[in-house]
Here is the input.
Amino acid sequence: MKYYSEVTKKFYNSEDEAVNAEKEREAIVKAEQEKKDALAKERKSRADELTQAMKDVQEAKKRYDKLLRDFCRDYGIFHFSWTESTPLSMFDFFNII
Here is the structure.
């Protein structure tokens, strides 16, 4: 007599084989789900870290703008020289244009 498993969609020679195959399949599915959950958790963690870094950059930009505005109000102009060692940021690109 053959046994059919709804889980694996296959026929087996004995009930024990069918049950063992279903348990193996369930273990594989569970391991895949755990891996997927771990990756989702890591992705969320890294996305949160990026969001916080973006907020930090925005706060630093606000502070820089305020300091520059106050300096220019008090002394008229702020001269800044570009050198090869001066790091560029995404904000500088838009100021140059």
